[in-house]
Write a sequence for this structure.
């Protein structure tokens, strides 16, 4: 009996749901809307990564340049890592 | 002193104090959050525009993109002149006074011209509640105007200190970074909202 109920419930859960087609990025009938959603999602995802990544890269390059200058001024000091 | 406060272990080189002034780093992080704020506004505007039947909606005036192009030129010129002042400051701070004052003047001209444009648009029926179009316009351009006003106040403060030879490189760079943000975000707003 338990087995039948479990099969019935799992079958209902697997077969019952319908595709809602509610995602505006995937199913909007207007191409303009789909493009707008995809483009803004990409911008909002990549922009913070680009800004923080760009700052870190710039700081790393600047630190290396300053360390190089310091090493040139003082040749006895160990080379920068 | 607490051991946890020792960020440099024995044998390691001390932190490089010339890498970036703390005030400039703080301003850059603040600018990052502001960039995301404007990106959110522009994203919402892009989606609303894509879903609209007509843009601008019927009965709403077209934004004055030609007149605003002249205002935009004044703002961009202001940014370029401040860059000249920034570079001059490194060699001799007194040489930065003239260009910094000119940058402030162009910035003020931009804000005043935008204010006049707003008065004209309100007269034509475009208000914050007249349509989504008007709502987005005043939200995005208004947020930019508030930032421009804040940056102008900061620039005026920096200029007053510069005139008394009491402005440091870090202070000038911090204020200038905010002004560069105000200048550089404007072309994006112009292209997305006005055109």
């Amino acid at each position: 009996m338990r087995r039948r109920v479990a099969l019935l419930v799992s079958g209902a859960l697997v077969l019952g749901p319908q595709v809602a087609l509610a995602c505006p990025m995937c199913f909007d009938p207007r191409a303009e809307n789909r493009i707008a959603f995809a483009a803004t999602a990409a911008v909002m995802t990549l922009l913070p990564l680009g800004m923080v990544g760009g700052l870190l890269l710039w700081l790393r390059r600047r630190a290396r340049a300053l360390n190089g200058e310091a090493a040139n001024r003082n040749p006895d000091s160990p080379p920068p890592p | 002193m607490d051991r946890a406060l020792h960020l440099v272990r024995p044998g390691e080189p001390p932190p490089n104090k010339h890498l970036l002034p703390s005030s400039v780093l703080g301003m850059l992080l603040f600018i990052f959050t502001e960039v995301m704020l404007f990106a959110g506004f522009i994203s919402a505007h892009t989606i609303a525009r894509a879903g609209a039947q007509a843009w601008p909606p019927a009965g709403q005036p077209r934004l004055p993109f030609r007149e605003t192009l002249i205002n935009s030129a004044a703002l961009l010129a202001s940014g370029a002149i401040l860059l000249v002042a920034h570079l001059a400051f490194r060699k001799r701070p007194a040489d930065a006074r003239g260009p910094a004052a000119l940058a402030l003047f162009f910035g003020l001209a931009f804000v005043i011209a935008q204010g006049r444009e707003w008065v004209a648009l309100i007269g034509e029926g475009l208000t914050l509640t007249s349509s989504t179009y008007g709502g987005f316009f005043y939200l995005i351009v208004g947020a930019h105007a508030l930032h421009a006003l804040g940056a102008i106040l900061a620039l005026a403060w920096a200029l007053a200190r510069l005139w008394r030879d009491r402005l440091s490189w870090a202070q000038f760079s911090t204020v200038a970074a905010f002004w560069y943000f105000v200048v550089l975000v404007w072309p994006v707003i112009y292209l997305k909202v006005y055109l």
